[in-house]
Amino acid sequence: MQIGIIGFPYSGKTILFNILSQTESDNSPIRKEINQTLIKVPDARLDKLTAIFNPKRKVNATLEIIDISGVQGTEDLKAQFTTQFLTKVRYNDAFLLVLRAFQNDAVPHILGTVDPLRDLNMFNDEFLLNDLAFVESRIEKIGKDLMKQKNKDVMKRELDIMHKWNDALTQGIALRDIEHTPTDIKYIKNYQPLTAKPMIIAVNMGDEDIAKRDLVTEPLKQAINSKKVVIEPLFARIEKELAELDEDEKLVFMKEYGLDESPLYRMIRSIYHLLGLRSFFTVGEDECRAWTIKEGMNAQESAAVIHTDFYNRFIRAEVVHYDDFIQHGSLFKCKENGLLRLEGKEYIVKDGDIINIRHS
């Protein structure tokens, strides 16, 4: 899963990427390109399991992040979305849009004033118009091809989908917010329309906005009514300082600002869940690890995430949920209470399951 960080220059987009790049992974090397990295998904459950089992290593789930440039300001204070930018964003699974909400006279906004709702609308409009131009082009091409081809069923099916997409886009509705059939989803994967992708909006505020962060984000939440869009506060300057502290110092620093946890950590988890990703755990003396699966995957499919051979060699899965394990304190006590159970290959793995795969 690849998430593209997008935003206007001086929004805090690149600072955010640099902070995320400092998040070390157990799978070294983590840095692929200068603008691309893997980041760990913070998970307090994995931290707790690691403290209990004291393994040789802990392995978090990861996300791939890429910093995408190509949005510029013009001399007449307008936004310009380059062709290079639109090409790069198309092949991401989701967007992390950084909106500037902080004031800094030393670093002027490229559009002259700070207005996160205006900036959000500009990105939404650009993506919508880009999708609409593509759909109109496909409708025109299919219409011409229908007059030449003999086997027209496939083209007619696509034409119906393109008309449905066109109807939504002309009304200003993002494709992520309409119902899709399995056939629709195949075309989405093939054509990668921009408005079909989930998006998390990071509203980058100043330190003085911490107490009123809900007031800052509320207009954006009212403007966006979508299950596939999440809005989270971000304090990039604070996060930059937090990244340079050890864990004890971080707790003191956050307490001074009235923060229970790093907003950045919450945002990473929001991205993870927005993509329909879930974690199950394997535990032991050698390793405690969070494994990433798509929501709805069964035990056999999840076993293959650990090792591809486990799919065909799967026998049973020993399963106990994290909450039950913490409540009873050990796998032995969970088994005594009937909470550690054997499940077959069709068992749907739940977020937070602790699993041991039995295989041939």
Helix-strand layout with pairing:
Blueprint: E1 2-7, H1 13-21, E2 31-33, E3 36-40, H2 44-53, E4 57-59, E5 62-67, E6 71-73, E7 79-81, H3 83-89, E8 94-100, H4 116-146, H5 153-170, H6 182-191, E9 199-204, H7 213-223, E10 229-234, H8 236-242, H9 247-256, H10 263-274, E11 277-282, E12 287-294, H11 299-306, H12 309-313, E13 314-321, H13 322-328, H14 331-336, E14 341-343, E15 353-359
Parallel strand pairs: 1-5, 1-8, 4-12, 8-9, 9-10
Antiparallel strand pairs: 2-3, 3-5, 6-7, 11-12, 13-14, 13-15
Helix pairs in contact: 4-5
Q: What profile does the largest beta sheet have?
A: 7 strands, mixed
CATH architecture of the largest domain: 3-Layer(aba) Sandwich
Please report the distance between the alpha carbons of the first and last residues: 31 Å
CATH superfamily of the largest domain: P-loop containing nucleotide triphosphate hydrolases
> What is the assembly state of the chains in this entry?
single chain
Provide the CATH topology of the largest domain: Rossmann fold
Unreliable stretches, pLDDT < 50, 5 or more residues? 23-33
Mean pLDDT: 90
